[in-house]
Amino acid sequence: MSGFLDYVPGNSFLHKLNPLTKLILAFLLCVSCFISENHFFVIGIILLNLIMAASAGVFKRSVKMLKALIKFSLLLFVVQILFVRDGNVLLSLPLGIVITDLGLSFSLLFVLRLFAATMPLALMLSVTQMSDLSNVLVSKVGIPYKYTFVLTTAIRFIPLFSQEMSGIMEAQIARGVEFDTKNFFKKIKLLLPLCVPLLISSVKKIDEGAISAELRGFNLRQKNSGYKAYNFSGLDFCALLLMAASISCALFI
Amino acid sequence: MIRFEHVDFSYGTSELMKDISFTINKGDFVAIVGANGAGKSTASKLCNGLLKPDKGDVFVKGMNTKTTKSSKLARFIGYLFQNPDRQICQTTIYNEIMFGLNYTIEDPSKRKAKCEAVLENFGFDGSKDPFNISRGERQRVALASILACEPEILILDEPTTGLDYRECMQIMDIIADLNQKGTTILMITHDMEIVQDFAKRVLVLTNGRLIGDGDCREIMTNRELLASTSVLPAQIPILSLMLGDDFQNVFSVEDMLERIEILIKKGGNN
């Protein structure tokens, strides 16, 4: 079963970029949508993300991720719209709740930013091998391997925990727990006791992983232990120029 | 009790089940065998509605699993997972056994009485933390919490994996006893000794296709069928296959002694 952060092999423009460039690209894309107050610019960033996803062969996965975000973003949209009281009142509701034009605009921008900022990192992880990411952080950025390993392992564990949670939920459904209910709040209430088996299995997995890594000489690794060179090419400079343009647009539009 | 009707199931592009049809009757003790990836776990999850068939239908007590919630089917079907840690979610054995009972028995006093009876039956100290006992004990706790709900059908996904011989026999004796009392058992296992000792009927799966369905002796002594799967039969059937035609259909130690006796007599007469 492939998780939404698993590496997808390919030969696209994004695949060929230096892992550090991809990381900077993802970071700057996120920053640019938080700098800009323009809805169309943020929509543009979402479209750019989708185009990049399509070129890297992960379009379906990106759309699936956006769909998964819809429920959460709707919840955020409602909360935001109810709490922003500045601007012209568009609609007055009972209990003194008002919906304003500013509230509507801000909530919409908030949700669009959520979509635009979530995609670049997931996209970057889909086109980068975890080992390359940790190696480049060690060799180019100078972060000690211990910390980059923690970072990449944490990312790698997300789909594993998700699979483990599905397995635990299956086991509980088989015991008569109604996870197959359509009531969202009931589902959340039922999920709480499952934190125990998930926590136990996670701690066990991490403990076993740590022992296994130590037994294979984890602590002997140094900055120059990696054998791969991560040189920057013309493509990387093109990507960084594109990002510089994006940041400029975000600042001036 | 369980009926598969031309069931197809695939995950992504991999076809895990292709045109599977079989019926499991009340009181059967059925083992599903086959190599890893043959579709055994898929078949068992189709039985309790955790997976829904792409084509065809699965019926449990006449209810179509496509239209019945898994949590509803759980009232009739108990499912013991290979890894008990996925099932155990409470901090004491008492609460763990009560967990399933909360969904099946409404009266709290009856629930408590049932839980205490199960604890006594299995010899558990209810106040113990289920995560601080051995793997075999955890498997027994998981089994006890399922059996407390008195399911009519019990599905076991590799129940003896990772257990020593004593723990394995403890689990299997409980299951055999339940079957004697009328519970329908569907067991997935790689352990052919267990299959030979306990199962009455065997289903053989290969690449999502059902290639064998018959009583245990019939399947375990079928040379052609065994040759076409990665299933290694129990020791006596293997020995009989190695010894050739004179030992055809020898299934147990008793069969072997009987056959040797016949051959000695035959030799003496000649």
The helical percent of chain B reads: 40-55%
Q: Quickly give the structural class of chain A.
A: mainly alpha
CATH class of chain B: Alpha Beta
Oligomer, anyone?
heterodimer
**Measured distance between first and last alpha carbons of chain B:** 53 Å
Number of helices of chain A: 10
Residues in β-strands, percent of chain A: under 5%
Query: CATH topology of chain B, what is it called?
Result: Rossmann fold
Order of H and E elements of chain B: EEEHEEHEHHHHEHEHEEHHHH
CATH superfamily of chain B, by name, is P-loop containing nucleotide triphosphate hydrolases
Task: Give a written overview of the molecule.
The complex is a heterodimer of chains A (253) and B (270). Helices cover 70% and strands 3% of the residues of chain A. In chain A, 23% of the residues are buried. Chain A has 253 residues and is an all-alpha fold. Chain A has helices at 13-16, 19-35, 39-55, 59-83, 101-126, 130-141, 145-173, 184-191, 195-215, 234-252; strands spanning 89-92, 98-100. A two-stranded antiparallel ribbon of chain A has the order 1-2. Chain B has 270 residues and is an alpha/beta fold. Chain B has one domain: P-loop containing nucleotide triphosphate hydrolases (Rossmann fold, 3-Layer(aba) Sandwich). Chain B has 12 helices and 10 strands. Chain B has helices at residues 40-47, 70-73, 84-87, 93-104, 108-122, 135-147, 165-180, 192-198, 216-220, 223-227, 235-243, 253-269; strands at 2-11, 14-24, 29-33, 55-60, 63-64, 77-80, 153-157, 184-188, 201-206, 209-215. In chain B, the strands form 2 sheets. In chain B, strands 6-7-8-3-9-10 form a 6-stranded mixed beta sheet, with helices on both faces. Chain B has a 4-stranded antiparallel beta sheet with strand order 2-1-4-5, covered by helices on one side. The N and C termini of chain B lie far apart (53 Å). The model of chain B has no long low-confidence stretch (mean pLDDT 87). The interface between A and B is medium-sized, with 23 and 29 residues.
